Amino acid sequence: MSTQDPSPATTATVARLAHENSLALAARDAAHRALTEQLLLVLADTLDSFDRLLAEGTEGTAADPESYRRSLELIARQLETAMSGQGVEPVGRIGERAEPATHHVAEVRTAPGAADDEVLEILQRGYRYRGHVLRAARVVVAVTGGPEQGTERS
């Protein structure tokens, strides 16, 4: 058996490929870091909104609970918009058919006029990021037939 030293061309090719791979990895790492920082800044803005609302104290909420509720809704929309801007989309809507890949059926109920596996209620929203399900929606679905209320299905 003879071992041969790699030719200078092979060595140069391996070195070039290793360098290109290193540059690509560094670029992906930098992009990931920038995306993470952007998301953290959006979360910080949302926390600032909560801080401003909480700084108003309870005297403002007791006087006008509807205004307080609207403020909370605005903060929730701020966070939802930020998540959507980062590619996170909600999963699970009332009236759609529950799918095993995106819905966790926590309960089934008989519901006149509803189709089998139709989502009747969202217990916990699910989320998808870039086509990947981060968390399945926990839902209550309709079933035709006998009463199975409280039955959990997967």
Automatic annotation (TrEMBL):
Keywords: Chaperone. Pfam families: GrpE. InterPro entries: GrpE, GrpE_head. Gene3D superfamilies: Head domain of nucleotide exchange factor GrpE. This is Nucleotide exchange factor GrpE.
